[in-house]
From TrEMBL:
Alphabetized Gene3D superfamilies for the sequence: AhpD-like
Native source organism of the sequence: Melanomma pulvis-pyrius CBS 109.77
Protein name: 4-carboxymuconolactone decarboxylase-like protein
SUPFAM superfamilies the record matches: AhpD-like
InterPro entries, sorted: AhpD-like (IPR029032)
Amino acid sequence: MHLPYVQNPPEFKDAQDQTIVERLKQRRGDAGLLELDLTLLHAPPVADGWNSFLGAIRTKTTLSTSIRETAICRIAVLNKAWFEWDHHAPLLKVCPGMNEEQIASIVNSPPHEFIGSAIDEQHRAVMAYTDAMTLDVCVPDIVFERLKNSFGEREVVEITATIAAYNCVSRFLVALDVGERNEQSGPRAVQATGVGK
């Protein structure tokens, strides 16, 4: 951790800042505020915008959970954002139709390559697009066409926004070592289940 977390529960004297805390708590629900929130709250207006944007990405798109979480988990692996992985891999693992081989492919496939045969074409297209956006920024036409062949225009925008948003999240997490996960050498959640390396 490069910055101390704000106290939990946060207690700001400024009423507007305290209202922002309440909005964060409302979105997090029973989980309570995460270390990410307690870092963002050093700048309450930034935390508020972040909360609104990421809340929309997580809950207001038409994407299936498995598509969204495949992209997020792949970003976590590519960027070594293990705090992100620890929070999203469990969501992916319980998706209908998702199995250990598919999760292992997300973890163990080298950049721009995919190992294992368990992943269907939609998920492969999302992984290829995620790799291109995350590692190269520019997306080759062939990768974009593959995505367009599997998804409608709204979904393409939602997938693109999800990948862009979670690249932002992972970079914030790693830069500030939120959750003290930078020393972690791999995805802890899958190591515990025997998946991955």
